[in-house]
Amino acid sequence: MIERLLLFPGTIDSDVPAFENLHETISYEHVSRNVNSVASALSRLRELSPKLVAIHAEDTYRHWVLIMALASLGIASASLPLSREVIFERDLKILDPDIVISLENIKLSKNEVLFISESWFERVFQTSETLFVESFSDPDALVRVAVTAGVSTQPVAVGITHAQAESAILRLMYQTVSQSKWSDSRSHLISTIGLNVLSGFLIGCSALASGQCLLAVPPEEIGLFLAQDKPSLMVITPSQVSSLIEMLPSTFSRLEHLNLVIVAGKLTVPLYNRIQSKVTASVSVVYGTDDTGPLTFGNASEFLMDDMVGKILPWVSLQLVDEKGEMVSQGEEGIIRVRGTGVISITRGGTMHPNMRDGWFYPGDCGVMDSDSVLRLTGRIDDLATLGGEKFDLVALDETICALSGIHDAGSFLLSIPGEETQLCIALVCEGKSFDANILTNAIRVKYPNLPPVFAIQVNRIPRTERGEADRTMLRRGYEDSLSA
Questions:
Q1: Assigned domain for 257 exists
Q2: Pairwise CA distance, residues 426 & 456, whole Å
Q3: What is d(CA 158, CA 165) in angstroms, rounded to the nearest whole number?
């Protein structure tokens, strides 16, 4: 079902481009033929009745063809991270797919792998006749599964049905059309959010369903495409746009036809100014999670503070409450909780999502609502930290550090510096009067390769809460007091 929605623009104008890279443009009609051919070639998978098929493919176009082909066969899919490191192994274990379709000849100890070579794709794509495959049409069946760790210290697998996916896609289309200046009928979507992430999948779906063109190039080629200054919408995290700016040549001119949408992180004033100077004047901010979908949207040029994330979207019910669940007064800080059609309340295993309480979803953020109904994010209520657009469990990080020789105790905390990215600090209780910073850095990098640089300090003891947890608030305040002393 969902594949028909994504390919529908091609039934109106078959020559509309659906995918583009630096070398070719692929029309919706061409994509539709390829999807049908691949679905025909893989139709015998139905006989195995797999509950979930995972895809491991670096090629963006072939990845999308596999997703749509499996959807047409009524087979739920998930995407594995491209890197064969810690996150890959974690997601593989949580997803536990019946089959892994890979474009690389990989070996997995506990999962059956179906290796598909480039020659297989070339042969199937050239097939002029396809077998008749009855299209799947159960709106309540799962179509997509993903691991989400955005709001919980324990990653879980969540799934969405065809009907839920269609609703989420239509909401994203509405958001783009009604609230963004990006309205060119032949715009491109450039998304740096991977397909292994639910929001990355839905963002791409909304672009295809609305007749836009997906850019299918590796990250290192994005700058070459941007230099062409074609009308484009780019979805990107703060750390990614910062890296992009560093890669741009000094002769790069600001783009007039690019709308940047910042997700999964804080847009600081200095970073916003750099974007305005080097990249584009059109910058928007979206706040949400994979479990809830977008919750707020705003134009960054209208923000007076860098913790603002915009106004609540019309299909979202958002409240700020205290620890007892009572609503706080306007202007007071409270715990964010949400309801809405985009909220995923049940995990793939059929259990209640750990962040659901009394019919409300708690993302774990605190915020303040101003008189203009603009939401500001003021912090977290748990041990999950957003750094560089990714989530990190501070409890697990502390445990990793405490396992190092010579370190008796550790407590990490976040330090918010006005106008700068949030800094991760680690307080250490060590043997002797010093510690080897290189050993600490190397140990962290092994388990957390994407963790931004950290700042370490040495203390006599780690303050603890009544439950024995590191008191991160006291650590932060103690450090701030030492700076002002």
A1: no
A2: 5
A3: 12
436: CATH: 3.30.300.30
Residue 411 falls inside a structural domain: yes
353 vs 414: CA distance, rounded Å:
26
Tokens of 118: 């480039």
For 53, the 3-state DSSP assignment is strand
Give the integer Cα–Cα distance in Å for 82 and 197: 12
In a domain, 65, yes or no: no
Supply the range of the domain harboring residue 446. Answer: 384-484
Please answer whether residues 441 and 447 qualify as being in contact, where contact means their C-beta atoms are separated by less than 8 angstroms.
no
User: Which residue ranges in the chain fall short of pLDDT 70?
Assistant: 84-86, 128-137, 149-154, 177-186, 382, 384, 388-391, 417-420, 432-437, 465-468, 485
User: Into how many domains does the chain fold?
Assistant: 1
Amino acid letter, 402: C
Residue 25 located in a structural domain: no
Neighbour count for residue 457 (Cβ, 10 Å): 13
Quick check: 411 and 427 in contact, CB under 8 A?
A: yes
Q: How far apart are CA 309 and CA 320, in angstroms?
A: 15
**Token pair in block for residue 22:** 């630096």
d(CA 11, CA 162): 20
- Please tell me the predicted confidence (pLDDT) of residue 422: 76
14 closest CA partner among 36, 33, 38:
33
Residues near 289 by Cβ (< 8 Å), separated by ≥ 6?
Answer: 148, 150, 151, 295, 363
State the first-to-last Cα distance of the chain, in angstroms, to the nearest integer: 64
Vertex 87: Cα angle to 345 and 216 (nearest 5): 85
131 vs 95: CA distance, rounded Å: 31
**405 Cβ partners below 8 Å, 6+ apart?**
none
In the numeric block, the tokens 């995918």 are attached to: 19
- CA dihedral sign of residues 220, 226, 227, 230: positive
